[in-house]
Amino acid sequence: SLGMENSRKRRSSSEHGRKKRPSLDAAKAPPATAAADTAATAAAPAAQPALVPIAHQKGKSVGPAVAPAGAATPRAGDKKHKPRNPAGAPLVVLDSKGRKQYPYGNYSRYYGYRNTQRFVDPRLDALPGDLLKDKACLDIGCNSGELTIAVAERFGPRTMDGVDLDPSLIERAKRNLEFYHALHPPAAAPPAASAAGDDADGATSFPISFPICLGPLPVLSRTTFPGNVRFRVENYCASPDCPQEAYDVVFCLSTVKWIHLNFGDDGVKLLFNKVHRTLRRGGLFVFEPQPWSSYRKKKDLTPELEKTFHEIRFRPDAFQRYLQFNLGFKLLHMVQPAAESKGFERPILVFEKE
Question: Would you say the C-alpha torsion 111, 112, 114, 115 has a positive or negative sign?
């Protein structure tokens, strides 16, 4: 029995040693190579830096940020790669009381809350009636598109492009265009009363139930309203693309203050130079500058805007001189809208590219 017990102990010791001893195959396996690591990294999907999500925290940024082209995705705790103003400023921020603020002036209904009627802008009454007929037009900072749509429907341009840096506003502008078109019959519709029961003076709009129940009307032509209206996301000052002599008329209404507070003096001068390059000879720049007093009211939205505000030397009262003497624009008209809504009673300057 003593011999059997010793034999069991030797077997147990041998099995214990085998468990601890690494296998021969494992010992012979080569370590992972750098090439394999590189291949694994290359197989991983690339990060998309176009929109940078920001955490929803009181007093901090909310929603996506406008990231500069080619910028790396910011890493947590890495200040070097954090988007900076203006190219990486968030589109929406929360103030100390948790209220949403819009450092680019990208209010969701910038024109809607100032006007009691959508698609009706008192500034248009002050513009010459033949200003845009059959012209290629651009609206910088179109917001949710109400003004762009009203201009295209009223003045009959050949094309009407609206650009804004906020993707959500551009989507809203596209929906507004469909909604407006669904409420208004085509321009070619006869004004006479029909068997369907239209008024004797002709229908001017469809019931609001039509687009809700039946959807938008089809667009039959790309050269007449609403087919001639196009919206796209673009940060005009930061965009490297500037087509030469592509437009006959460029609008910049209630926009330059926000460009100035975000991009500074150089940003405004860049705006003016790009407008000059993109206009054809004889083209018009329809410009509504905001007064310096309105800058003061918005400078505290973010620390970056306040810093830029105090660095501004090129104030609005110098814009006209710069456009005329530095770029060669000629002032054709200075019109004063009879606006009932505060904020839209500012003078509008119409310059011609000579």
Answer: positive
